[in-house]
Design a protein that fits this description.
The complex is a heterodimer of chains A (117) and B (112).
Chain A: E1 5-7, E2 10-13, E3 19-24, E4 31-37, E5 43-50, E6 65-69, E7 75-79, E8 88-95, E9 107-108, E10 112-116
Parallel strand pairs in A: 2-10
Antiparallel strand pairs in A: 1-3, 3-7, 4-5, 4-8, 6-7, 8-9, 8-10
Chain B: E1 3-5, E2 9-13, E3 18-25, E4 29-37, E5 44-49, E6 53-57, E7 60-65, E8 70-75, E9 84-94, E10 97-102, E11 106-111
The chains are: A mainly beta (117), B mainly beta (112).
Chain lengths: 117, 112
């Protein structure tokens, strides 16, 4: 697509429920990133997919968080047994391969605002 | 790990010039980015530096000194629409991956 698409744009869920957040990157972008941003805070790295390589999961805050990227395109971030501290805006970004195009920045989606009540 | 420092807030006057500084400490440095983020919106890419020196792009310029772990974003002829947060982000090799870490951002307010 023309840009990075995320869905849903807003999600309110009850504490303890599981949620799935979807990201559809720009066609042809091999790199995909998930970040989260709490109110007034910076972007916290979660996970990074690059082509067919094993993802960098070093930013996932707990084992309740997982992500997958099917067919090198769409990615789903899953949060199990949600907690109130999971409330944040979850941002997905994609880019061309940083190895081939290091000077290209990320293109971010509009984010999913998750509220755990 | 990485440590990125930026001022929290700045105020500048419409038509003026403002410089937003960023200092960082990292190993495996592989580039520095600046992003603009308007309130309630996603960040948008502004500039990239990997070599020392100044990169100019219209009203925006970005400078890098790798030896000093220092960068700045220079905004000229400020406009009201430039009111936003400006995020400094550093890319570095870590654990076999290239990871980009963002600073907490500098909130710039442009006043008439």
């Amino acid at each position: 697509g023309a840009g990075v698409s995320q869905s849903p744009s807003n999600k309110v869920t009850e504490k303890g429920k599981d949620v799935e957040l979807r990201c559809d990157p720009i066609s042809g972008h091999t790199a995909l990133y998930w970040y989260r941003q709490s109110l007034g805070q910076g972007l916290e790295f979660l996970i990074y997919f690059q082509g067919n390589s094993a993802p960098d999961k070093s930013g996932l805050p707990s084992d309740r968080f997982s992500a997958e990227r099917t067919g090198g395109s769409v990615s789903t971030l899953t949060i199990q047994r949600t907690q109130q501290e999971d409330s944040a805006v979850y941002l997905c970004a994609s880019s061309a391969s940083p190895q081939k195009y290091p000077n290209y920045g990320y293109t971010f989606g509009s984010g999913t605002r998750l509220t755990v009540v | 790990g990485q440590n990125i420092d930026q001022p929290t807030e700045m105020t500048a006057t419409e038509g003026a010039i403002v410089q937003i500084n960023c200092t960082y400490q990292t190993s495996g440095f592989n580039g520095l980015f600046w992003y603009q983020q308007h309130a309630g919106e996603a960040p948008t890419f502004l500039s990239y530096n990997v070599l020392d020196g100044l990169e100019e792009k219209g009203r925006f310029s970005s400078f890098l000194s790798r030896s000093k772990g220092y960068s700045y974003l220079l905004l000229k002829e400020l406009q009201m629409k430039d009111s936003a947060s400006y995020l400094c982000a550093v890319r570095a090799f870590s654990g076999g991956y290239q990871k980009v870490t963002f600073g907490t951002g500098t909130k710039l307010q442009v006043i008439p």
